């Protein structure tokens, strides 16, 4: 079952995310997830699929967890998100897809960002996500 109840469950989630196995990733979410980060708000699984489906055409995104705590209603982590350009992602492409606040990246370039991510849980499923950059 795809629930988040302990760090081992999150490791399975991160492994699926890093492998771009969207079906496995989305199985961890409720039917009506809410994500808010960097000015983007996602409220359906389809929006989640569209967002990552577009973005991951141009970048390889990986999560490296440094610290994690899980309770019945929260999974909180600190980690590094690495974004590596696999193809050029231009300012125009970002703007056309409602991602004006994101930065363009060229193929071969890489960015690493320290993030604090809170996954709010309902019955072990991700109900909402919020994150902050440092």
UniProtKB/TrEMBL annotation:
Superkingdom in the source lineage: Bacteria
Protein name, UniProt field: SnoaL-like domain protein
């Amino acid at each position: 079952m795809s629930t988040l109840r302990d760090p081992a469950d999150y490791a399975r989630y991160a492994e699926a995310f890093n492998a771009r196995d969207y079906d496995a990733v989305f199985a961890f979410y409720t039917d009506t997830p809410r994500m808010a980060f960097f000015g983007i708000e996602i409220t359906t699984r389809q929006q989640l699929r569209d967002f990552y489906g577009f973005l991951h055409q141009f970048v390889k995104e990986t999560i490296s967890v440094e610290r994690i705590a899980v309770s019945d209603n929260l999974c909180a982590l600190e980690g590094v998100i690495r974004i590596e350009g696999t193809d050029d992602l231009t300012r125009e492409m970002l703007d056309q897809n409602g991602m004006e606040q994101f930065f363009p990246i060229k193929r071969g370039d890489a960015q690493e960002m320290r993030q604090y991510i809170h996954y709010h849980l309902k019955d072990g499923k991700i109900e909402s996500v919020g994150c902050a950059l440092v």
